[in-house]
Amino acid sequence: MFHAQPQLLVTGASGQLGRLVVDQLLATVPANRITVAVRGSEAAAALAALGVQPRIADYNRPDTLDAALSGIGRVLLISSNDLGRRVAQHRNVIVAAKRAGVGLLAYTSVLHADTSPLGLAGEHRDTETLLRASGLPFVLLRNGWYTENHTASIPAALAHGVLIGSAGEGRIASAARADYAAAAVAVLTTPQEVAGRVFELAGDGAYSLPELAAEIARQSGQPLGYANLPDADYKAALIGAGLPDALASLIADSDIGASEGALFDASRQLSALIGRPTTPIATTVAQALARR
Question: pTM of this prediction?
Answer without folding.
Answer: 0.96
